[in-house]
Amino acid sequence: MKKIIIVLILLTIAFLISNGKSTEVLIPKEAIRFRVIANSNTKIDQMNKRKITSNLEQDLSNLLKDSNSLVQTRMTLKNNIGNFQTNIEQTLKENNMHEDYTIDYGNHYFPEKKYKGVTYPEGEYESLVVTLGNGAGENFWCVLFPPLCLLEAEEGENDEVEYSSFVKEVLDKYFS
Question: Of 90, 103, 110, nearest to 132 (Cα)?
């Protein structure tokens, strides 16, 4: 009897979920983005972008780990532009990269992006943007505040989503 009640509850939940709105991770209006644009789409330029991105992400993570407000994040970014430039120059030097770059904090244009089934509209967004060389290549972007950078957003990556279902897991547990 207990199993039947559990199954009925789970089926009801599954029905309600399947007929309800799907939950999407959306970027709030009050957000700060981070973007690194590669010089081109050549393998070497994309590798350079990844190295710069990786090193900057470490800096950003350390600087913003305790930031709990938009204002605090904004001030930390503005106050550390020189440190980010030093990081980029050091990364370029250590990897024998001879690349011009620009770094800017402000409002920047972002094209429409589809990622994991969600479409993020084009527009001007508050952001820290690093442009390598001509800035004609695919780019990395994420959200620094709120801290959503764990959502890897690399243009050209596979947009397939892996779903898991609590209901399916419970049913499998009791009836497999």
Answer: 103
